[in-house]
Amino acid sequence: MKITDITAAPLLMASSNQPMTFFVVRVTTDDGRTGHGEACDCFGVSHPTVLARIVEDVFAPALIGTEVGAGGPAVEPVLAATRRTLGGGTVAAQARSAVAIALTDLAAQAAGVSVSAAAGRVRDDVRVYVGSSPFLESGPAAQHLDRLAPALERGVDMVKMRIGLDWRAALRVLAELRGLLGNGVEVAVDASEFFTLADALGIADGLADLDIAWLEEPLPYEQRGAIAELARRTRVPIAYGEHLFTVGEAAEALAGGVTVVQPDASICGGIEPARAVAALAAATGARAVGHHHGGVVSMAANLHVAASSPGIDVLEFPVHLDPLLRDSAGLDLGLSAIVGGRLPVPTGSGLGVTLDPGFLDRAALPVGGR
User: Fold this and answer.
1) For the chain, first and last CA: distance in Å?
2) What's the topology of domain 118-344?
3) Going by DSSP bridges, is the β-strand pair 3-14/19-29 parallel, antiparallel, or unpaired?
């Protein structure tokens, strides 16, 4: 099964909050199959045309005419050949992730099984937590609770809230929201890399008595020494993942005090590396939670990672992306599919996602930008 074409597709689609840009890759083979992959940079994709150029100029010329392989193995030689020029992280990793997911999709299709069945499925549905985008300080606790209510009504028992620059006000709102949610709902906090070590310590102190599952990305991910110092001085678990682009970077983070890792197949190199990060977390006593902030292809990929990784106990579900989590054949990975706080894993061959032939054209990012 040889690769005959690779299409790089920058997309513009509407979430329930706003229009957002995304990036999907379609890989076609000589036996007529198509596989899809999707990249993420932590919030859809901010620069999809950059990823398109990397795929078109680097990955496509190297891979067209070669055998599909099984995702990672097919793209590793391209990574090795370009590491010194493109690097192994950020946009290069995101582009590689989309291509690798598409190849894994094709390999499982050829075998007639789902991606997670091929990898060793351990669960048929995955617990999800709801990520809410508005900063806590943007409104009262009751307003945030109203936004979370549709997911809570479907049995979701974990939420993640965001802290903005006015973190003292955010902590006051969080304390009230924590009381409204009650002890039956797990709460995590995302700090979006906004803060200095001094502020991060203040935030961690404020969270210490609120029974918080983790404090996510309080400092820029490259400030490893400061992250280690923060982890040493707080009892709040520290989480990183959406800016860890390789298994080696995840290992370094775990050695530096991070106790929650967040693998995302659309960021860290594909489904196989994401599973490897989850296994590494399990081996070192850390918690592994799935990250997701893309469309239906990325959600399917990360569901398959979680379904075949015993150590992953929950996967992110950004509530504002609900309109984008259905495919062309009726597969529903959105809010309406959540039952008892869990999302079913696709059972079709490959990723189990079907995108009709005209989808990439209809959702194409207009030339010149948003």
Assistant:
1) 36
2) TIM Barrel (3.20.20)
3) antiparallel
Evaluate whether 9 touches 263 at the Cβ level (below 8 Å). no
pTM: predicted TM-score of the whole model, two decimal places: 0.96
Per DSSP, which regions of 238-359 are E strands?
A: 238-240, 260-261, 287-290, 312-318, 342-344
Fold that domain 3-113+354-362 belongs to in CATH: Enolase-like; domain 1 (3.30.390)
- Ordered mean pLDDT values, 10 residues apiece, the chain (370 residues): 96 95 98 97 95 96 90 80 88 95 96 97 98 92 96 97 97 97 96 97 96 97 96 97 94 97 97 97 97 98 98 96 96 98 98 96 85
* DSSP-derived 3-state class of residue 131: strand
Rounded-to-integer distance, Cα 259 and Cα 285, Å: 8
Catalogue the E-assigned strands of the chain.
3-14, 19-29, 34-39, 125-135, 158-162, 186-190, 212-216, 238-240, 260-261, 287-290, 312-318, 342-344
Write down the residue that tokens 């979430």 correspond to. 15
